[in-house]
Design a protein that fits this description.
Elements: H1 9-19, H2 25-31, H3 36-42, H4 46-84, H5 87-103, H6 127-141
Helix pairs in contact: 4-5, 5-6
């Protein structure tokens, strides 16, 4: 007779405590009197893996939504910091702007749609800020600076 692939009530409770209530793993195992070896065996069971993977995917999507919802505010704040030109803070803001741009996951635009030239909600780079960004890129690439 094949083993059942469903989660036990105890397994569901442990998972619920770990993900929904965000409790410490060892504390949860102690609360449900689950040994470390039993928990490790559960982690090899397809139903347990599937449930955990599903909850992890949900957590990642929630995180991505939060980041997406606040990306514009973060970009504007980084632009403000970069424009201030106050040493290390400005330099790091420039690097973060570049990093955000690289991680934005630019998707190709379908052939039948045109991307707006300058969307009104996008912060615009001044010449000074663009120069700072280029200087930071050059520094990171090890390109020597040229004095005017």
């Amino acid at each position: 007779m094949a083993k059942t692939t469903k989660l036990s009530k105890r397994q569901r409770s442990v998972i619920d405590e770990l993900f929904v209530k965000e409790n410490d793993e060892q504390k949860v195992l102690d609360n449900y009197k689950v040994s470390r070896s039993t928990f490790e065996k559960w982690q090899n069971e397809p139903a347990f893996i599937e449930c955990i993977d599903s909850l992890i995917a949900i957590a990642h999507r929630r995180y991505a939504i939060t980041i997406a919802n606040n990306a514009q505010k973060a970009a504007k704040r980084l632009m403000e910091l970069a424009k201030k030109g106050e040493g290390e803070t400005s330099r790091k803001a420039c690097l973060d702007i570049i990093s955000l741009n690289n991680s934005a996951g630019a998707r190709p635009i379908p052939a039948n749609k045109q991307e707006p030239e300058n969307p009104s909600n996008m912060p615009q780079l001044s010449a000074a800020t663009a120069a700072k960004l280029l200087a930071v890129l050059a520094e990171e690439a090890g390109i020597p600076q040229i004095d005017d």
